[in-house]
Amino acid sequence: MDEREALARQRFFMLQALRLGGAIMAMIGAIIISGQFVDMPALGYVLLVLGAVEFFVLPNMVARKWRSPDK
Fold first, then answer.
1. Domain residue limits, the chain
2. DSSP state, residue 67
3. 26 with 57: CB under 8 angstroms?
4. pLDDT confidence of 9, banded at 50, 70, 90?
5. DSSP structure string for 6-61
6. How far apart are CA 21 and CA 54, in angstroms?
7. Side-chain-facing half-sphere of 7: CA atoms under 13 Å
8. C-alpha to C-alpha distance for 70 and 58, rounded to whole angstroms
9. Residues with Cβ within 8 Å of residue 46, at least 6 apart in sequence
10. Predicted local distance difference test score (pLDDT) of residue 32
11. pTM, rounded to two decimals
12. What is the model's pLDDT at position 46?
């Protein structure tokens, strides 16, 4: 495995970890909103929105930052 392939593998797993963290955060927010865990729906909405942003937006921003320039 060459250096470029190892770097690509690390970046792939980092993006997937970001998505997994966002999904978990959004699920915890949904559970809090339902009132089964804690009776603080405002906290649940904040976690739900932040989790959605982390799941949908943050990986795209990171991947754009990593993208190699066209030559």
1. 21-66
2. P
3. no
4. very high
5. HHHHHHHHHHHHHHHHHHHHHHHHHHHHHTSS-S-HHHHHHHHHHHHHHHHTHHHH
6. 8
7. 7
8. 22
9. 29
10. 95
11. 0.86
12. 97
